[in-house]
Write a structure and sequence with these properties.
Layout (H helix, E strand, L loop, with lengths): L1 H40 L2 H12 L1 H19 L6 E5 L4 E6 L2 E7 L2 E4 L2 H4 L2 H7 L4 E8 L15 H8 L11 E6 L4 E6 L5 H27 L9 E6 L1 H10 L5 E5 L1
Parallel strand pairs: 1-9, 7-8
Antiparallel strand pairs: 1-2, 2-3, 4-8, 5-6, 5-9, 6-7
């Protein structure tokens, strides 16, 4: 009878943990959406000027385009290379002083439901300004050191210029965390070799670790359930390396979808 009671207790504890976990996972995005909505609606001037956007789909599309253009204009005065994520046109571009200097084709992307459920007025206010990179992590060496012999002539110099460095052959991904707790994850479109699979597992474990940390934090602070809306973007591995090595820390990012 005691054994049965002990098993029953464990079952109840495990069931309670699963229920609490499910509630936290479900509530965290809602809390985040409500938090952003509250911040937006405190700006009474903005709300009064854009209220029609909420109720008319056609106006919302126009407002999204306007927000995208305004965000890009916000990057013009920066001396650093910025990043433009245009998921509608399947492009990730690097921009400097308003000029696109490189574009990469998005092979595929996944987005949290958060991005689909966001209030139209929150969207147009949130994405009308560039977001700022707060932290980053990558499997890529930021500044590879390549040691080469001095060329004998101009022909050898040209040959050396197009020799790939051995460091860039590693499988690639990088994460960047933006303000408003938005996370971008860039991964290569294919994971073929054994080394690739190792990196793929690493990237997935990093994402899982972040989610578990959020859940653990939420257990301690139920009223402030932690949540990071995440976009996962697949690109060619060469483009990922170029982008990661080109954009500086605290660079600006513009997003439209």
């Amino acid at each position: 009878m005691k054994l049965f009671s002990r098993k029953n207790s464990w079952f109840i504890i495990i069931a309670a943990i699963i229920i609490i976990y499910s509630v936290i996972v479900a509530i965290a995005p809602v809390r985040k959406l409500n938090e952003l909505k509250k911040e937006t609606f405190l700006d009474s001037v903005y709300i009064s000027q854009n209220l029609a956007v909420k109720n008319q789909a056609q106006l919302f599309q126009l407002a999204k385009e306007k927000a995208f253009l305004e965000a890009q204009l916000g990057m013009v005065n920066s001396d650093s290379i910025g990043l433009i994520i245009n998921l509608k046109d399947s492009l990730v571009s690097m921009s400097l002083k308003g000029v696109i200097i490189h574009s990469s084709k998005v092979e595929n992307f996944k987005q949290d439901p958060f991005f689909k459920e966001i209030n139209p007025l929150v969207y147009t206010k949130l994405f009308a300004k560039p977001l700022i990179i707060q932290s980053e992590y990558s499997s890529i060496v930021k500044e590879p050191i390549v040691i080469r012999k001095a060329p004998k002539d101009t022909i050898e110099a040209l040959e050396n210029a197009y020799k790939p460095d051995t460091l860039i052959q590693n499988a690639t991904y990088f994460n960047i965390d933006l303000n408003h707790d938005i996370k971008l994850v860039f991964i290569q479109k294919e994971w073929l070799s054994k080394e690739d699979k190792e990196i793929e597992r690493k990237y997935k474990s990093d994402l899982l670790r972040v989610r578990l940390q959020n859940i653990a934090s939420s257990f301690l602070h139920l009223k402030k359930a932690s949540y990071m809306p995440t976009l996962i973007i697949e690109l060619d591995d060469k483009d990922i390396r170029s982008i990661y090595r080109a954009i500086p820390f605290h660079s600006q990012v513009v997003i439209t979808y």
